[in-house]
Amino acid sequence: MKTLLPHFLLFFLLFVATMGVSPEYTRPHPRPLIFRPHNRSESEPQQVHISVAGKDNMRVSWITSDKKVKSVVEYGKTPGKYEASATGESTSYKYFFYSSGEIHHVRIGPLEPSTMYYYRCGGYGPEFSFRTPPSAFPIEFAVTGDLGQTEWTASTLSHVGARDYDLLLLPGDLSYADTNQPLWDSFGRLVEPYASTRPWMVTEGNHEIETFPIIYPHGFRAYNARWLMPHQESGSTSNLYYSFDVAGAHIIMLGSYTDFDSNSNQYKWLRGDLARVDRRRTPWILVTIHAPWYNSNLAHKGEGESMRKAMEKILYEARVDVVFAGHVHAYERFTRVYDNKADECGPVHVTIGDGGNREGLAMLFENPSPWISVYREASFGHGRLRIVNSTHAHWSWHRNNETDAHMSDEVWLESLSSSTPCNQINISSTSPNDEL
């Protein structure tokens, strides 16, 4: 009996961990950390990334070792020919014995939709290019969380970049620097080939907090300095939560690690932000958080519950379509849900904390699966949301294989703004099906 128990336990754990995975699939092992060194001159830009910064505008962010480089971006529609320029601001920070380079942020525009622009940062170094998002449907979002910087991260990014998309959403846990500040620089260099060509819109995770008692009590020092998001443009007073419009979608990036109760600034901002949404102009509403409100994985169980209790009703009444979360290093999709029950007028909750971080996968799920959980799998990968028109969108999740990305889950979604039952007072529940 002493020898049988460990074998039985091992079999049980493997069975639970591999639920929903095809028999021929071999689950990947963790892969080593990638460190990207700085191989440009001190005045040349590094860690270049772009983000949406209000209507018809983009923010270009980069870092230079030379603190005298001007915060200016030259840009135009023809390679090497810059018809316009804009000047912004720069900042830097210290963290114990670490001193960052000069961090530049420049807002450029107005820009035309669905247009390729070529740009140069600070008047030095290589030319970059990006394409602006469209002004109308269709639009495609790539979604991945808990990236880190391992060989699996590189695999995820290569799969994301292998197919075209318009904008990337990242629900927290970017670099996994965890106070080791040079890893922030390495992460910026790793993602630059992708984040400099399409807007990356991020929100914070627990690995961005980086507090230290007395000396750095408030946290997010590196995150706020490096990844400036359009909080001011959306009326938010904090870089930890904000919103923006793109094509016909309103996207809200919430902060799981700042106050969210009914007396908080975030709560009051969210109510005001949703009250201003015009579903005729933006028929889709997407929300991104870090700690999931619904989770059948044993990892981080219940950590999003207090935020769910504080804010779920607001999202439900606003008819939010999809809520993306990270934190749990696995993939899970729920049916439309509200207050722990299937509800045809609630959002679809998707956990996608599977970008490739160094901590590995969250292998253990509850057994049996709760019936509101439609698909779950502990694998690295990324998701894609293609909003086709004002009424329908296609969601798919792509597992990282060695050489390609295999689509393992998909569903067609109908926008709640177009759902007659959800615009009525009496709302009935529904069970999961192939179209939500």
TrEMBL record:
Gene3D superfamilies: 3.60.21.10, Purple acid phosphatase-like, N-terminal (2.60.40.380). Residues 45-132 form the Purple acid phosphatase N-terminal domain. Residues 1-20 form the signal peptide. It catalyses: a phosphate monoester + H2O = an alcohol + phosphate. InterPro entries: Calcineurin-like_PHP (IPR004843), Metallo-depent_PP-like (IPR029052), MPP_PAP (IPR041792), PAPs-like (IPR039331), PAPs_C (IPR025733), PAPs_N (IPR015914), Purple_acid_Pase-like_N (IPR008963). It is an enzyme of class 3 (hydrolase). GO terms for molecular function: acid phosphatase activity; metal ion binding. Residues 346-402 form the Purple acid phosphatase C-terminal domain. Its cofactor is Fe cation; Zn(2+). Residues 141-331 form the Calcineurin-like phosphoesterase domain. Keywords: Glycoprotein, Hydrolase, Iron, Metal-binding, Signal, Zinc. Its EC number is 3.1.3.2. Belongs to the metallophosphoesterase superfamily. Purple acid phosphatase family. This is Purple acid phosphatase. It comes from Sesamum indicum. The gene is LOC105174084.
